[in-house]
Automatic annotation (TrEMBL):
Residues 9-124 form the Transposase IS200-like domain. This is Transposase. InterPro entries: Transposase_17, Transposase_17_sf. One of its GO terms (biological process) is DNA transposition. Pfam families: Y1_Tnp. It comes from Thalassotalea litorea. It comes from the Bacteria.
Length: 236
C-alpha cells in the first residue's frame, strides 16, 4: 500500500518522533546526544524551523517544531538523519540503516494542545521510569523551558511566552504545569495522533486545515484484518 503524503503546513507546529530501527539504541554516549543536538541546531537554522521542545531517549527522539515553510521539517529531518547515521556507523563500526523507516509527525492545534505536547515530550523519561522528575534527565528542553539553562536551540513559542510577563515567572508557571497531574486520556490521544501521522486538534482546527490543504485531514480508519480480535476491538 502506498504511503499517505505527510500533512505539512507553514507556521503550524508539528510533533515529531523518530525511532531506532527495531528499537535499537541510537545513542550510547554523551557525545552521541550532543552531536545530534548540534545537527538539530544546524539544520533547524538552515531550513528556518523553530524548535520549542525536545527529548532524546536512548532509542528514539521527540521534537516539537514550527516550520516557516511546508517543506522545512522534511528537509531538516532528512539532513539530520543522513549526517547522524554516517556519524553513528563510523563511530561504532557498523553499516546499514539506523532509523525505523520515516519519522512520525503530527500537526498540533496550538491553542488547545501545544503546551500539552510540550509537557508530554519532557515527561517522557518520567513515564519510562528513567527518573522521577524531568529535571533529573539531561537531554531534554525542560532545562530551558522550566529551569535556568540557556539552550540556544530552543525558540519559545508565543503560547509559552504568554504564560507570564517575565522569563522567571514563565519558567515557574511552566514548572507548575509540567508537574501537575496529567490526564491519561490526553496522553493517549497525543501518542495515538503522532503514531498515526494524524492531526491533534479540535474539529474547528481540522476544518481549517482541510480548507488550507484542499483535502480531509482525518486519516482513514479502513483496512486491517476484519476477522482479527484486535480489529473488532478497535471498532467497539
Amino acid at each position: 500500500m502506498a504511503r499517505q503524503p505527510r500533512l505539512n503546513l507553514a507556521d503550524i507546529p508539528q510533533h515529531i518522533i523518530q525511532r531506532g530501527n527495531n528499537k535499537i539504541n541510537c545513542f550510547f554516549h554523551q557525545r552521541d546526544f550532543a552531536y545530534y543536538l548540534k545537527l538539530l541546531k544546524e539544520y533547524a537554522d538552515k531550513f528556518d524551523v523553530s524548535v520549542h521542545a525536545f527529548v532524546l531517549m536512548s532509542n528514539h527522539v521527540h521534537l516539537l517544531l514550527t516550520p516557516s515553510s511546508s517543506c522545512g521539517v522534511s528537509q531538516m529531518m532528512q539532513s539530520i538523519g543522513r549526517c547522524y547515521v554516517r556519524y553513528f556507523n563510523l563511530s561504532y563500526e557498523r553499516t546499514g540503516t539506523l532509523w525505523e523507516g520515516r519519522y512520525k509527525s503530527c500537526l498540533v492545534d496550538s491553542e488547545n494542545y501545544f503546551l500539552e505536547v510540550s509537557r508530554y515530550i519532557e515527561l517522557n523519561p518520567v513515564r519510562a521510569n528513567i527518573c522521577s522528575s524531568p529535571e533529573q534527565y539531561a537531554w531534554s528542553s525542560y532545562h530551558a523551558n522550566g529551569l535556568n539553562k540557556e539552550i540556544a536551540l530552543i525558540t519559545p513559542h508565543p503560547l509559552y511566552e504568554g504564560l507570564a510577563q517575565t522569563k522567571e515567572q514563565r519558567k515557574k508557571v511552566y514548572r507548575l504545569f509540567v508537574n501537575a497531574p496529567v490526564d491519561n486520556e490526553q496522553t493517549q490521544l497525543i501518542r495515538k495522533s503522532v503514531n498515526k501521522d494524524s492531526v491533534l486538534g479540535s474539529a474547528i482546527f481540522k476544518t481549517k486545515l482541510s480548507s488550507l490543504l484542499g483535502k480531509a485531514v482525518d486519516r482513514s480508519t479502513h483496512g486491517g484484518d476484519r476477522k482479527s480480535a484486535k480489529f473488532r476491538n478497535q471498532r467497539l
